[in-house]
Amino acid sequence: MKIAIIGAGNVGSALGGGWRTAGHEVVYALRDRTSDSARSMADEGFQVVPLDTASDADVTVLSLPWAAVEAALKEVGPLSGSILVDTTNPLTPSLDLAIGFDRSAGEQIASLAKGARVVKAFNTTGADNMAAARDFPSRPMMPVAGDDAEAKRVVSRLAEELGFEAIDAGPLAASRLLEPLAMFWIKQANIQKMGRDFAFSVVRR
Ligand SMILES: NC(=O)c1ccc[n+]([C@@H]2O[C@H](COP(=O)([O-])OP(=O)(O)OC[C@H]3O[C@@H](n4cnc5c(N)ncnc54)[C@H](OP(=O)(O)O)[C@@H]3O)[C@@H](O)[C@H]2O)c1
Question: pTM here?
């Protein structure tokens, strides 16, 4: 299979190396074919092609910084019918999500319950798992978000006591992440028919 990768950074180069090893023809479609990254790809034996030829492949892979995506896609031109793999995260320079929810139930509740030390927790898995967290082969995670460190410690301990691995998810505003994560669990359970006996856990190396 011919794979055109737009972007030769961390992601693009990692993917391309792996796919080439697997036997695919990998080309890099880059904005500047004289750049350091273009040269280094060429030195590694990859073909470097103009951006506007990226669609001449079986699969086109987009691995650019979020801020570069719109302009690059204009330059790439029509991709109608192409398989386009999007590896991007819509990140700001300070590594926040550039798009997404701008409020959350956690924050809303904090503004209603003035002065309360609101902690977001126990919302990312099903209630039956909260009753049976110890039944999993490894501890499911329980993200805990809040602005008050002590309140968060207390709630984290409560989560651990149920058999979860408490994960410090940061401030209450991280509810904006945890609430969509809950939606993911719900959809997996209900729409994707995974059932309710699964949970997210963290594995490490
Ligand atoms: N890094 C990760 O571990 C990781 C994991 C998952 C997803 N992602 C996401 O994947 C995307 C790529 O991440 P990365 O870490 O590979 O980025 P990166 O290392 O910064 O590589 C960026 C690539 O994009 C090119 N580029 C930058 N600005 C451009 C522009 N205006 N027009 C065209 N090309 C441009 C760069 O070309 P030059 O070399 O010429 O500057 C470089 O080839 C991001 O959206 C990121 O959020 C990253």
Answer: 0.81
